């Protein structure tokens, strides 16, 4: 059986279109990133036609380069519109207009801007989520034989599984989507909720953390003696495990910003003040 070399298909397609080699290499990087971040390789098809080279799911592109016509350029499916970047435009995916899942096209006309996509982790995170959500859209769940002709299933030649989504990025994405939802009118939000799933999808995530010094935590909790060290109110309840007052130990300078895991850099907070410290940092003040 002949081994399929996807890079060669891209190189041949680029040569036939007389596109310069720099762009050809960037296009290989583009599809490499797309392969790595596609969450449904068993339903995604890759290949080229005379006018385009693409990854396709059902009747919708995940990633594509269209050579000519009104749709000329690079297209990438995203789960939402990202911040403005010069040289990149965003367009709503019209086929998802009536779907509860609204997706967005990223589009660039000037192929010299392809490196802006390849080097942007936020774009690929959004693409990864979109590749998961696309199956719930009208064109995402039905495969058209005419569109997948001469294309190959991604998992038939690409064996590397997409990395689990970073939990921090997933949480940030949730916060961004909540902000977007709050900009809608109540009527718009209720209309979307009519078609919303009652049970959320499960997705594999990864997270990283620090191995904290438990003696620091114990010492800070003892120092606080059940009283929040910011609002000075008693702990809201006692733990079932040992009946001790429930407070949370927070680092004044976060460990992620090279803060020290020491008693002097830690403070015991009630849950409300702890949330204030993380989500209202501008107005969170520690005396002393």
Summarize the entry for a quick read:
The protein is of the alpha+beta class and 288 residues long.
Low-confidence spans: none
Radius of gyration from the alpha-carbon trace, in angstroms: 25 Å
Average pLDDT, rounded to a whole number, is: 86
Helices and strands, in order, run as HHEEEEEEHHEEHHEHEEH
Within the largest sheet, what's the order of strands? 5-6-4-3-2-1-7
Instruction: Indicate the percent of residues in helices.
Output: 25-40%
Number of helices: 8
The total tally of domains equals: 2
What structural class should be given to the helix and strand makeup?
alpha+beta
Distance between the termini: 72 Å
Biggest sheet overview: 7 strands, antiparallel
Tell me the fraction of residues in β-strands, as a range.
Answer: 15-25%
Q: Report the strand count.
A: 11
Assign an overall shape: elongated
Structure description:
This protein has 288 residues and is an alpha+beta fold. The protein folds into 2 domains: 6-163, no CATH class; 214-283, DNA Binding (I), subunit A, CATH 1.10.30. The chain is built from 8 helices and 11 strands. It has helices at residues 6-16, 21-37, 114-118, 121-133, 167-182, 186-194, 214-224, 271-279; strands at 44-48, 52-57, 60-66, 73-78, 89-92, 104-108, 152-153, 165-166, 205-206, 248-251, 266-269. The strands form 3 sheets. Strands 5-6-4-3-2-1-7 form a 7-stranded antiparallel sheet. Strand 1 and strand 2 (52-57) form a beta hairpin. It is elongated. The mean pLDDT is 86.
Topology, element by element:
Elements (H helix, E strand, L loop, with lengths): L5 H11 L4 H17 L6 E5 L3 E6 L2 E7 L6 E6 L10 E4 L11 E5 L5 H5 L2 H13 L18 E2 L11 E2 H16 L3 H9 L10 E2 L7 H11 L23 E4 L14 E4 L1 H9 L9
Helix pairs in contact: 1-2
